[in-house]
Specification:
By secondary structure, this protein is of the alpha+beta class. The protein has helices at residues 75-78, 89-103, 105-116, 139-151, 162-178, 191-196, 216-225, 233-238; strands at 4-5, 8-17, 21-28, 49-51, 120-121, 124-125, 132-134, 159-160, 199-211, 245-253, 257-270. The strands form two sheets. Strands 2, 3, 4, 8, 9, 10 and 11 form a seven-stranded mixed sheet that branches. Strands 1-7-6-5 form a four-stranded mixed sheet, with no helix packed on it. A hairpin with a 3-residue loop joins strand 2 and strand 3. The protein is globular, with a radius of gyration of 18 Å.
Protein backbone atom coordinates (compact mmCIF):
# COMPACT_ATOMS: atom_id res chain seq x y z
CA UNK A 1 0.00 0.00 0.00
CA UNK A 2 1.40 3.38 -1.00
CA UNK A 3 1.80 5.97 1.69
CA UNK A 4 0.61 9.54 1.20
CA UNK A 5 1.19 12.67 3.25
CA UNK A 6 -0.66 15.92 3.77
CA UNK A 7 0.37 19.50 3.10
CA UNK A 8 -1.80 22.52 3.70
CA UNK A 9 -1.51 26.25 3.08
CA UNK A 10 -3.43 29.00 4.82
CA UNK A 11 -3.97 32.68 4.11
CA UNK A 12 -6.25 35.24 5.74
CA UNK A 13 -7.99 38.52 4.87
CA UNK A 14 -9.30 41.52 6.79
CA UNK A 15 -9.97 45.01 5.55
CA UNK A 16 -8.68 47.83 7.71
CA UNK A 17 -10.75 50.98 7.32
CA UNK A 18 -9.17 54.43 7.80
CA UNK A 19 -6.68 54.13 10.68
CA UNK A 20 -7.09 50.53 11.74
CA UNK A 21 -10.74 49.84 12.44
CA UNK A 22 -11.24 46.19 11.58
CA UNK A 23 -14.40 45.18 9.74
CA UNK A 24 -15.75 41.66 9.32
CA UNK A 25 -12.71 39.36 9.30
CA UNK A 26 -13.02 36.36 7.02
CA UNK A 27 -10.62 33.45 7.00
CA UNK A 28 -9.58 30.94 4.44
CA UNK A 29 -8.37 27.80 6.15
CA UNK A 30 -7.15 24.74 4.38
CA UNK A 31 -8.88 21.68 5.77
CA UNK A 32 -6.50 18.87 6.80
CA UNK A 33 -7.48 15.30 6.05
CA UNK A 34 -7.63 12.59 8.71
CA UNK A 35 -5.33 10.42 6.62
CA UNK A 36 -2.09 11.41 4.89
CA UNK A 37 -3.67 13.45 2.11
CA UNK A 38 -3.18 16.91 0.72
CA UNK A 39 -6.49 18.72 1.31
CA UNK A 40 -6.92 22.48 0.97
CA UNK A 41 -9.56 25.06 0.43
CA UNK A 42 -12.91 26.50 1.44
CA UNK A 43 -14.82 28.29 -1.33
CA UNK A 44 -16.67 30.56 1.11
CA UNK A 45 -13.55 32.14 2.60
CA UNK A 46 -10.81 34.58 1.56
CA UNK A 47 -7.04 35.12 2.02
CA UNK A 48 -5.67 37.31 4.82
CA UNK A 49 -4.76 40.83 3.83
CA UNK A 50 -5.20 44.21 5.44
CA UNK A 51 -4.87 47.66 3.94
CA UNK A 52 -4.81 51.30 4.94
CA UNK A 53 -5.61 53.79 2.15
CA UNK A 54 -3.78 56.67 3.85
CA UNK A 55 -0.31 55.16 4.19
CA UNK A 56 2.53 55.11 1.68
CA UNK A 57 5.03 52.26 1.33
CA UNK A 58 8.32 52.68 3.18
CA UNK A 59 10.51 50.76 0.79
CA UNK A 60 10.49 50.50 -2.98
CA UNK A 61 12.65 48.03 -4.91
CA UNK A 62 12.95 47.30 -8.60
CA UNK A 63 14.44 44.33 -10.35
CA UNK A 64 17.00 44.67 -13.14
CA UNK A 65 15.88 42.76 -16.22
CA UNK A 66 15.44 39.41 -14.54
CA UNK A 67 12.52 38.22 -16.65
CA UNK A 68 14.48 36.57 -19.45
CA UNK A 69 14.80 33.10 -20.95
CA UNK A 70 18.22 32.26 -19.54
CA UNK A 71 18.59 29.67 -16.82
CA UNK A 72 20.91 31.84 -14.76
CA UNK A 73 19.66 34.15 -12.01
CA UNK A 74 21.13 37.26 -10.44
CA UNK A 75 21.47 35.56 -7.05
CA UNK A 76 23.17 38.55 -5.43
CA UNK A 77 20.18 40.77 -6.17
CA UNK A 78 17.53 38.16 -5.39
CA UNK A 79 19.06 37.09 -2.08
CA UNK A 80 18.00 40.22 -0.22
CA UNK A 81 18.33 38.47 3.15
CA UNK A 82 21.86 37.13 2.66
CA UNK A 83 23.49 39.44 5.20
CA UNK A 84 20.91 39.31 7.99
CA UNK A 85 21.75 37.37 11.15
CA UNK A 86 18.25 36.71 12.48
CA UNK A 87 17.09 34.30 9.75
CA UNK A 88 17.97 30.65 9.17
CA UNK A 89 19.34 29.40 5.86
CA UNK A 90 15.90 27.96 5.01
CA UNK A 91 14.17 31.27 5.75
CA UNK A 92 16.67 33.17 3.59
CA UNK A 93 16.17 30.63 0.81
CA UNK A 94 12.38 31.09 0.88
CA UNK A 95 12.79 34.87 0.49
CA UNK A 96 15.16 34.33 -2.43
CA UNK A 97 12.73 31.86 -4.02
CA UNK A 98 9.84 34.32 -3.67
CA UNK A 99 11.98 36.99 -5.29
CA UNK A 100 12.76 34.66 -8.17
CA UNK A 101 9.11 34.19 -9.09
CA UNK A 102 8.14 37.80 -8.33
CA UNK A 103 10.80 39.28 -10.62
CA UNK A 104 10.64 36.67 -13.40
CA UNK A 105 7.28 34.87 -13.26
CA UNK A 106 7.30 33.48 -16.81
CA UNK A 107 10.86 32.22 -16.46
CA UNK A 108 10.06 30.60 -13.11
CA UNK A 109 7.04 28.84 -14.60
CA UNK A 110 9.05 27.47 -17.52
CA UNK A 111 11.91 26.21 -15.38
CA UNK A 112 10.17 24.80 -12.31
CA UNK A 113 6.44 24.32 -12.79
CA UNK A 114 6.77 22.74 -16.22
CA UNK A 115 9.30 20.33 -14.70
CA UNK A 116 6.85 19.50 -11.92
CA UNK A 117 4.14 18.28 -14.31
CA UNK A 118 5.96 15.05 -15.12
CA UNK A 119 5.67 13.87 -11.51
CA UNK A 120 1.86 13.76 -11.58
CA UNK A 121 -0.12 10.55 -11.90
CA UNK A 122 -3.71 11.79 -12.04
CA UNK A 123 -4.16 13.49 -8.63
CA UNK A 124 -1.03 11.96 -7.14
CA UNK A 125 2.21 13.94 -6.99
CA UNK A 126 4.95 11.31 -7.04
CA UNK A 127 8.47 12.63 -6.55
CA UNK A 128 10.99 9.77 -6.98
CA UNK A 129 11.77 8.02 -3.70
CA UNK A 130 9.38 10.20 -1.67
CA UNK A 131 6.02 9.77 0.00
CA UNK A 132 3.17 10.37 -2.46
CA UNK A 133 1.15 13.58 -2.11
CA UNK A 134 -2.54 13.30 -2.97
CA UNK A 135 -3.76 16.62 -4.38
CA UNK A 136 -7.28 17.85 -5.03
CA UNK A 137 -6.90 19.16 -8.57
CA UNK A 138 -3.96 17.21 -9.91
CA UNK A 139 -1.86 18.57 -12.75
CA UNK A 140 -4.64 20.97 -13.82
CA UNK A 141 -3.76 23.32 -10.96
CA UNK A 142 -0.12 23.36 -12.09
CA UNK A 143 -1.13 24.08 -15.69
CA UNK A 144 -3.39 26.91 -14.54
CA UNK A 145 -0.55 28.36 -12.48
CA UNK A 146 1.80 28.20 -15.48
CA UNK A 147 -0.71 30.12 -17.61
CA UNK A 148 -1.07 32.74 -14.88
CA UNK A 149 2.67 33.24 -14.42
CA UNK A 150 3.38 33.45 -18.14
CA UNK A 151 0.97 36.39 -18.36
CA UNK A 152 1.98 37.99 -15.06
CA UNK A 153 4.05 41.16 -14.92
CA UNK A 154 7.18 41.21 -12.73
CA UNK A 155 6.77 42.84 -9.34
CA UNK A 156 9.32 44.21 -6.88
CA UNK A 157 11.76 42.37 -4.68
CA UNK A 158 10.84 41.59 -1.08
CA UNK A 159 13.21 42.89 1.59
CA UNK A 160 13.48 41.18 4.99
CA UNK A 161 12.19 42.78 8.20
CA UNK A 162 13.41 41.82 11.66
CA UNK A 163 10.25 42.97 13.42
CA UNK A 164 7.96 41.20 10.98
CA UNK A 165 10.03 38.04 11.32
CA UNK A 166 9.57 38.23 15.09
CA UNK A 167 5.80 38.40 14.54
CA UNK A 168 5.94 35.33 12.27
CA UNK A 169 8.11 33.53 14.83
CA UNK A 170 5.52 34.13 17.55
CA UNK A 171 2.97 32.04 15.63
CA UNK A 172 5.49 29.30 14.84
CA UNK A 173 6.46 29.02 18.53
CA UNK A 174 2.79 28.89 19.49
CA UNK A 175 1.67 26.27 16.99
CA UNK A 176 4.77 24.13 17.45
CA UNK A 177 3.46 23.55 20.98
CA UNK A 178 -0.32 23.55 20.47
CA UNK A 179 -0.50 21.76 17.11
CA UNK A 180 -3.09 24.23 15.90
CA UNK A 181 -3.31 25.64 12.38
CA UNK A 182 -4.57 28.98 11.08
CA UNK A 183 -3.86 32.63 11.71
CA UNK A 184 -5.31 32.96 15.20
CA UNK A 185 -2.85 32.26 17.98
CA UNK A 186 -3.72 30.54 21.24
CA UNK A 187 -3.67 34.04 22.78
CA UNK A 188 -6.37 35.08 20.24
CA UNK A 189 -3.90 37.24 18.29
CA UNK A 190 -4.28 37.71 14.54
CA UNK A 191 -1.51 38.77 12.12
CA UNK A 192 -2.22 42.46 12.68
CA UNK A 193 -1.91 42.02 16.45
CA UNK A 194 1.38 40.17 16.17
CA UNK A 195 2.90 42.67 13.73
CA UNK A 196 1.87 45.54 15.98
CA UNK A 197 3.98 44.12 18.81
CA UNK A 198 7.14 44.99 16.90
CA UNK A 199 6.24 48.04 14.84
CA UNK A 200 3.74 49.55 12.42
CA UNK A 201 2.96 48.12 9.00
CA UNK A 202 2.57 50.52 6.09
CA UNK A 203 -0.16 50.64 3.44
CA UNK A 204 -1.09 46.94 3.33
CA UNK A 205 -0.20 43.64 4.96
CA UNK A 206 -0.94 39.95 4.61
CA UNK A 207 0.10 36.52 5.79
CA UNK A 208 0.62 33.09 4.23
CA UNK A 209 1.19 29.88 6.17
CA UNK A 210 2.41 26.64 4.60
CA UNK A 211 2.43 23.33 6.47
CA UNK A 212 4.25 20.16 5.48
CA UNK A 213 7.42 21.25 3.64
CA UNK A 214 10.96 22.14 4.71
CA UNK A 215 12.41 22.83 1.26
CA UNK A 216 12.26 26.45 0.06
CA UNK A 217 11.17 25.71 -3.50
CA UNK A 218 8.48 23.27 -2.36
CA UNK A 219 7.10 25.88 0.05
CA UNK A 220 6.87 28.52 -2.69
CA UNK A 221 5.48 26.10 -5.28
CA UNK A 222 2.77 25.03 -2.85
CA UNK A 223 1.72 28.64 -2.26
CA UNK A 224 1.84 29.46 -5.98
CA UNK A 225 -0.17 26.48 -7.20
CA UNK A 226 -2.69 26.84 -4.36
CA UNK A 227 -4.24 23.44 -5.01
CA UNK A 228 -7.90 23.24 -4.01
CA UNK A 229 -8.25 26.97 -3.27
CA UNK A 230 -10.55 28.58 -5.88
CA UNK A 231 -9.51 32.14 -4.96
CA UNK A 232 -5.77 31.30 -5.26
CA UNK A 233 -5.36 33.62 -2.29
CA UNK A 234 -1.88 32.41 -1.34
CA UNK A 235 -0.65 33.11 -4.87
CA UNK A 236 -2.28 36.54 -4.77
CA UNK A 237 -0.40 37.38 -1.57
CA UNK A 238 2.89 36.06 -2.93
CA UNK A 239 2.55 38.06 -6.18
CA UNK A 240 1.04 41.21 -4.64
CA UNK A 241 2.87 44.20 -6.14
CA UNK A 242 2.21 46.41 -3.11
CA UNK A 243 4.10 44.07 -0.78
CA UNK A 244 7.70 45.27 -0.42
CA UNK A 245 8.90 43.81 2.89
CA UNK A 246 8.39 40.47 4.56
CA UNK A 247 8.98 38.60 7.76
CA UNK A 248 9.43 34.86 7.84
CA UNK A 249 9.74 32.05 10.35
CA UNK A 250 10.00 28.32 9.70
CA UNK A 251 9.78 25.62 12.33
CA UNK A 252 8.29 22.30 13.34
CA UNK A 253 4.64 21.31 13.75
CA UNK A 254 3.31 18.33 15.76
CA UNK A 255 0.95 17.12 13.01
CA UNK A 256 2.44 18.37 9.74
CA UNK A 257 6.11 18.13 10.80
CA UNK A 258 7.02 21.51 9.31
CA UNK A 259 5.45 24.95 8.98
CA UNK A 260 6.42 28.28 7.48
CA UNK A 261 4.78 31.63 8.30
CA UNK A 262 5.33 34.57 5.94
CA UNK A 263 4.09 38.07 6.76
CA UNK A 264 4.01 40.73 4.04
CA UNK A 265 3.59 44.52 4.06
CA UNK A 266 4.04 47.62 1.93
CA UNK A 267 6.59 48.76 4.50
CA UNK A 268 7.29 48.42 8.20
CA UNK A 269 8.34 50.88 10.91
CA UNK A 270 10.33 48.91 13.48
CA UNK A 271 9.88 49.80 17.13
CA UNK A 272 12.88 51.82 18.30
CA UNK A 273 13.38 49.67 21.39
CA UNK A 274 13.61 46.55 19.23
CA UNK A 275 10.67 44.82 20.89
Amino acid sequence: MKQTRKIISISFLIFVINFGLVASPKRLISVPGKSHTFLTGNTKQQPWRASSPYAKPLLQTRSKSLNNNKNDWNRAELNTAKDVKYLSDLEKAVIQEMNMVRTAPAKYASLYLTEMKKYFNKRQLEYPGEVIILTQEGVRAVEECIRFLKKAKPVGLLLPSRGMSKAAKDLVKDQSKTGRTGHTGSDKSDPNNRLSRYGEWIKTCGENIEYGNNIARRIVLSLLIDDGVPSRGHRANLMQKNFRVCGIACGTHPEYRYMCVIDYAGGFHENKDGR
